[in-house]
Amino acid sequence: MKTENGIAAGTSGAKGINRRLQPIGRDLLRNRWLYLMMVPGLLYYMIYHYVPMGGLIIAFKDYNMGDGIWGSRWTGFDNFVTVFSSPDFPQLLRNTLLISVYRIVFNMVPDLLLALMLNEIRAQWFKRIVQSVTYGPYFLSWVIVYGLVFSFLAPDSGLISTGWRELTGQSISLLTDKAFFRPLLLITDFWKNTGFGAIIYLAALSSINKELYEAAVVDGAGRWRQLWNITLPGVRDVFILLLILRVGTILDAGFEQIYIFLNARVTEVGDIIDTWVFRRGLEQLDFSVATAVGFFKSVIGFILVLSANRLAKKFGGSGIW
Amino acid sequence: MSLSFFLDAGLSSALPSDASKDFVKQAIEEKFNVELNVQYMAGGQDHVNKINTLIAANDAPDMWKDTSADGGLKLATQNVLADLTPFVTEASMPNYFKYWITPQELKYFQGIHPFMRAAVPYEKRAYRAYYIREDWLKNLGLEVPDTYEEYLQVLRAFRNNDPDGNGKKDTYGFTTTGDSGKQLGLDWPEYMKNGLVFASRVEDNKFVDTQTDLRMEGVINDIVKVNEEDLVDPDWFLNKIGQQTEKAAQGKAGVVLGTTMTFALDSNPTSLQSMTKQLFPEANWIAFNPLGDKPLQTMLSPGNPFVFSKKTAENNPEKIKRTVQILDWLASPEGFLLTHYGVEGKHYTREGNTITLKPEAYQADIVDQGNFLDVWDFFTPNNPTVFGFEVIDPTMSDRDRQILASIAQIPTLPGYGMTLTAPEGFDLASFRNKQKEWQVKLVFEDKSGSKWPEYREKLMTEYKGQLLFDTYESQLKQVGVIK
User: Fold this and answer.
1) Selected residues 413-452 of chain B with any CB under 8 Å from a CB in chain A
2) Which of A76, A136, A284, B4 has a 20 to 30 A CA-CA distance from A204?
3) Under CATH, which architecture does the B127-298+395-483 domain have?
4) pLDDT at res. A6
5) In whole numbers, what is the pLDDT of chain B averaged over residues?
6) Are B430 and A280 within 8 A, CB to CB?
7) Do A263 and B310 touch (CB under 8 A)?
8) A268 to chain B: closest CA residue
9) Fold identical between B2-122+301-382 and B127-298+395-483?
10) How far is Cα B323 from Cα B5, in angstroms, rounded to an integer?
11) pLDDT for B133-190, tens place per residue?
12) Nearest CA of chain B to the CA of A278: how many Å?
């Protein structure tokens, strides 16, 4: 009795609202399980990506661990002034940008090339072996990679250094060579990550309609023609997408790798914003200054992603949005 | 009651994975009715970073030993350390004050800052000495060098005259560490040759920062010279800290610096001497001073403090009180003996004040279990003489005694015994990094120190070094070290 009344009252009272919310409500109801499945993902982004953004306010404060985020003193833009007036800043910015651009040029193109080459291999077993072998180094940490590099290049005991000394009678010290530092970063990055980078292109390549190739063969197109007119356009969107994403992180020049590879003789060409932030923030407990730099980096990255996206659309690509 | 400690330990030391073998932990837990949660890492920047991260994550240990270069001052200004006034007193820590640290020392250590850091008892005897392969000298018919010129001659002979007689030119004179490619380091005898003594000091009523003194020009020139002559292990710059000792143990170099008492003693199973002997049974490292009778270092000042979490002190002061009791017990004869020599009757025997060690039992129960006393002895240096103990180590050889005697003859300069603080907002890391970077550049690229005064000027102005050293001097004046 009671329940029946309640239901009746509820339905009649909510009629007006219901009508307005109906399209959303019905959609929610119909896809409720799908929406439910989305909740953990949304929560993850809320908790780990949006809530911590609140911490950015310490960029405008003199953060003191004892006083906490709220208790610390406001300082306005002082931290930004400290960063930009630091005598090291121009050099840091230059190194960061250069290394990033080099990475885009010298590491994105090889990824694509490797994928194209793998794509042309007809023997499946061979393709799989090559793929696994090139993919393997991705799972090594930079510490291990540095250990390998060190055992090749250490001035006295390194394999290559020893070989060179035996051959020419002169000693070389590539790890501390300013001219060689950036190439060294790129070469090791290439060795470690190319196999992994190629995977996404392989996926794009496998989605190209096979009939296009057959039609091209009928029209008398050779291998290179097929590559130029079918394969490359087929992966163009993926390439541009990755490019946009990388442009967005152009002020991250690869902290993990550089922090390990850096030494005082190559600081001039290898010290980047992130290594400086690490020293300043964690080693010096200057969290506010470090956050200010992080904030600055994010703003620049955001602007760059937006502009790269606009450009991509302008030149006929699809962009991210 | 559960207590969390963060300690420091040697690179290769670890607490036993089987907790029942850790008799120190058991003893403390039983005696003080606590449950200990102990973390440890080798002291240094990584140790500091790890603790900073814990603090930032609001997960600071109740007590930790600080190993940062500024003696924990940065943390004190961050307001995360407990005020020690109610906890660390002569009444609450009788052993600490009786045997190890005088109230006056503690006051100096505190300097002009609030009492948040207390010095961990430290080794007051200086053990900084150079070590040389005496067997190599003998092979080449040379004497132990007594002046820098003689030292250079020996380096040349070690490099060129095949001291190990293996027919290959694969030996070097000196080896050292650049801390994985970060700096020149302070190991070079060239500093002393140019009148700069290890660690900074007060000279003629002025503060002298060894690393940035004008005399560095001469130091750099001399270092360039030995490098150019190819007398130094070419890997020195990239050597990790400690790797230079390994290099020396592998027979690659004939001279290396040691800073601890047992650095080259037979009685220490992991000493330079013991390691070298595994490869070259006839090897014999002896301590010497390439500068003759000049001092190699200033008197040591207390370096690492022990500190407590402010949060714990506010929410649970009982925990701090209990920790203080534990620390004071570690500073007592009982705690000292247990954390340095093991269990009485098992690892040593005691008659009055004479302690006789049992090396086999020590090896089996302690060294083979991760050498875990190296973690627990964090609170006291291995100096039994403060209690009037005489320790008889059956493995101690005549050679060992001779080394200790020659180290004792190396003079030391008086130190100033306090921690100096950089002015507020000063970026000490950038300053030191720039200094190190430029000095490395002078050695490897310019191959001359002639531009040092120019770089130094930049450090003093652009990187505000003058402000730093003025601040140091005024702090020294406040406590009366400089008049």
Assistant:
1) 425, 427-430, 433-434, 436-437, 440-441, 444
2) A136
3) 3-Layer(aba) Sandwich (3.40)
4) 41
5) 91
6) yes
7) no
8) B437
9) yes
10) 9
11) 999 999 999 999 999 999 999 999 999 999 999 998 999 999 999 988 889 999 999 9
12) 10
Q: Which amino acid is at A196?
A: F
Neighbours of A217 (CB within 10 A): 13
Top-level class of domain B2-122+301-382: alpha beta
Q: Tell me the whole-structure pTM to 2 decimals.
A: 0.78
Contact between residue B463 and residue A86 where contact means Cβ atoms under 8 Å apart = no
**B225 or A30, greater pLDDT:** B225
Decide if A267 and B437 are in contact by the 8 Å CB cutoff: yes
ipTM reported for the complex, 2 dp: 0.72
**Fold of the A78-314 domain:** MetI-like fold (1.10.3720)
Residues in chain B: 483
- Burial (CB < 10 A; 0-12, 13-18, 19+), residue A227, is middle
Going by their DSSP bridges, the two strands B2-8 and B35-41 should be labelled as parallel
Task: Name the H helices within A121-177.
Answer: 124-135, 142-153, 159-168
Is B55 close to A65, i.e. CB distance below 8 A?
yes
- List b or e across A116-147, with b for residues whose CB sees 16 or more CB atoms inside 10 angstroms: bebbeeeeeeebeebbeebbebeeeebeebbe
AA letter at B40: Y
For A150, nearest residue in chain B (alpha carbons): B238
Collapsing DSSP to helix, strand or coil, B347 comes out as coil
B422 vs A contacts (CB less than 8 Å): none
Q: Of how many residues is chain A composed?
A: 321
**Sheet containing strand B348-351, strands side by side:** B348-351, B354-357, B390-392
Is the CB of residue B324 less than 8 Å from the CB of residue B93?
Answer: yes
Q: B178: which chain A residues are within 8 Å (Cβ-Cβ)?
A: 263-264
Yes or no: say if A306 and A99 are a contact pair by the CB < 8 Å rule. no
Q: How confident is the model at residue A19 (pLDDT cuts 50, 70, 90)?
A: low
Two tokens, residue A284: 């010096």
DSSP per residue, A218-264:
HTT--HHHHIIIIIHHHHHHHHHHHHHHHHHTTT---HHHHHHH--T
Q: What is the pLDDT of residues A65-90, one digit of tens each?
A: 878 888 888 998 999 998 898 888 99
Structure tokens at B394: 């059956």
Structure tokens belonging to residue A18? 């219901």
The one-character DSSP state at B283 is -
Q: What is the DSSP letter of B309?
A: B
- Cβ neighbours of residue B33 under 8 Å, at least 6 residues apart? B1
Share of chain A above pLDDT 90, in %: 36
Written as six digits, the tokens of A14 are: 């909510």
Contact A263 B430 (CB under 8 A): no
String of b and e for B319-358 (b: at least 16 CB within 10 Å)? bbebbbbbbbbbbbeebbbbbbbbeeeebbeeeeeebebb
| Residue B235 to residue A66, Cβ atoms within 8 A | no
CA distance A69 to A59: 10
Give the span between the Cα atoms of A131 and A194, in whole angstroms: 10
3-state DSSP percent of chain B in helix, strand and coil, to 5: 40, 15, 45
Strands in B66-127 per DSSP E? 118-119
Q: Is the dihedral angle over the CA atoms B187, B137, B295, B457 positive or is it negative?
A: negative
Enter the tokens of residue B113.
């800052």
Q: At what angle do helices A159-168 and A142-153 cross, to 10 degrees?
A: 20
Continuous segment of H or E residues that includes residue B255: strand B253-258
Report yes or no: A118 and A131 within 8 Å, Cβ to Cβ: yes
DSSP E strands, B15-104: 35-41, 63-65
Torsion sign, CA atoms B260, B261, B266, B270:
negative
- Residue A262: list chain B partners with CB under 8 A: 181
Are A192 and A198 contacting, i.e. CB atoms less than 8 angstroms apart? no
Domain ranges for chain B:
2-122+301-382, 127-298+395-483
Encoded tokens for B260:
């601890």
